[in-house]
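Minutes, structural biology subgroup

Action item carried over from last meeting: produce the structure token record for ThuA-like domain-containing protein (Dactylosporangium salmoneum). EB confirmed the sequence was re-checked against the source entry. Recorded below for completeness.
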Amino acid sequence: MSVGSLVLAASAWAAPTSAAATLTPAVATGTNSWYRGPVTLNLSATDGVGGVQRLEYRLGNAAPFQTAVSAGAPYPGALAGSVKITQEGSTTVGYRAVSGDNSVETTRTITVRIDTVAPVVSWPGIVAGKVGHTATLIPTRTDPAPGSGGVFIHKMWIDQTETTPLPVRTSTLSTGAHTISVVASDAAGNAARFDQTFVVTTSFGELGTLIDGFASDGAIGAGLAADLRAKLAEAASLAEAGNANQAKRALNQFVAAAQGGSKSGQVRDTLVGDARYLQQQIAGELPGDPETGMIVTPVAGPDPIAPVVPLAASTNFPGAKFRVLYFSATKGFRHDHIPDSALLVQQWGQQHGFDVDVWDPRLAPASLTSTPFTSGADLAKYKTIIFSSPVDGTNANSPASADALNAAELAAFQEYIRAGGGYVALHGASDAIHNVAWYRDLVGAWFTNHPGGQNGEGTCGSCINVRVNTEDSTNPATAHLPKTWLTIDELYNFDHNPRAEVHTLLSLDEESYRRSLNSGNAATNPLPLMGGDHPIAWCQEYDGGREFSLILGHDRAQYSRDPFTQILLAGINWTAGQSDANCSTFRQTRTLITSGAAAGTLTPESAAAAAALLDDAQAAYLRQDYNAAGTSLNKITAIAGSPAAGTGEARGELDRQVRQLRSWMSSLKNS
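Output recorded by EB:
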């Protein structure tokens, strides 16, 4: 028999074929594609010739295979089964089928990520429940192996007062008992609350170090610092010699000097408190230590946010009063909030009476089929256009790609704005069209970078905690907000500070996150930010149109938080001309004066005088001297009131804008 005939006569046995394995639940029960409990691995395979003998799986590439399900002879042509996976960590699960003749399929894999254990937080600077008065406390955060990692501190309290997660300088605390509380979660969303109670102590040496620090910071003068050091040294010497009463008298003199010479309440209280502590210590009268230690309480962590789908390419709601365009087409980085904000805007349209068109091919079929940026006349059907993170490749930090709008589309958009159109810039709208100065002035500032966060936040791995300042509480977009408030979001830095050109509504308190515990090594190496003044939301009337920028909004969770969504809705209504708001700017007023002088509607003398006064007012505003700003603006209204200054129409418009600026300054002064 030939070799060829032997081959032809061979049995038709072949390895079985597995279907792709699936998991139950199909969607991860934790965040970042992690499960927070057991997972069922579902397997199935077919073999129409020899039948399927068994299905096997292994937990890790080096682990032995185990049988998930098996069948007896005669072996069925199809076999299915499941097995519960409980192994913690990210596991490459291999699976394969074995046929009736023991032919083995090539191993296939699926990744199963399980983490059921909450992270652990400890404070290594606290020893036996005590810490000195010159320490900086930075917590150690670990996720027990093999965990999901990325531990994030969601909330932090010091003695029940909420703060952003920062290192704790014990010099800001009084001597005695305190409690630091944090809620931390890992990348899977397992979370716990950690309440650490401890006692702050002090010593003659630490009080001397505090004096040096206060003097170095300028909190106390050099003369007072020298006097305090001398009295402290005298008290320490007397105490060491066993002269307790004389040491206590020296400390009384220290207290009198501190109370009489320190202007800062916290500094004064610290100096006095430490001296009183030392007096009690010398006399053996310190109170007994309270109970200290850590209490750990499981709490609910962040849950995954389900994917959303916008309603339709064009909504046409009964009774709608106007139409808006939602634009989120991307040619660079794509933000995952885009579908969420698109759906939210459409739902608002239904609730508040406006129709919505969506332009973003990646949201098909909810998107228009072709660009609406064809001409200013065509765009005129929209009362406002929402740029929802249409990131392109014009930022040097992004992959090279086309502009968000090509030249013809940009020309149409400019025509629309100059005809009085509205524009809302949401989050990554400031990371687009970086090569067109007009767009920078419209959006207010270009994105450059942002600090990173930890995946344990759950819904935004690049987000960190921040305190936001409400600067203009008279604006409809911010009237519902407290003067300062806490949120978690991605925090942009810009190519320049836009404050001088725009009407700032919200700003970031950079000190609330410059040393954030949730941003890399920022606790010990402070983040490079914007120099302390950091606008993050603003409005303006620019080049004929109405512009509103809200640069928060990276986190998908923001679109279910009413305080945030009210800001955005008010911005839509104002830019669409459906509500009034004071969005006056010094740039807008300066343009009015310059154009009036060029057109001859303001006399050269009055225009020059008004421009100089406006410069003075702006300088005063930037140094937060709102009284001086108001005084200069009053003088401009006097110029506008003089018939000799120009035409009635030009003077009237100048008067209107200056009064808006003055009203803004007044609201800032009273806030």
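Discussion: The chain is about 30% helix and 25% strand.
Next step: EB to file the record with the rest of the batch.
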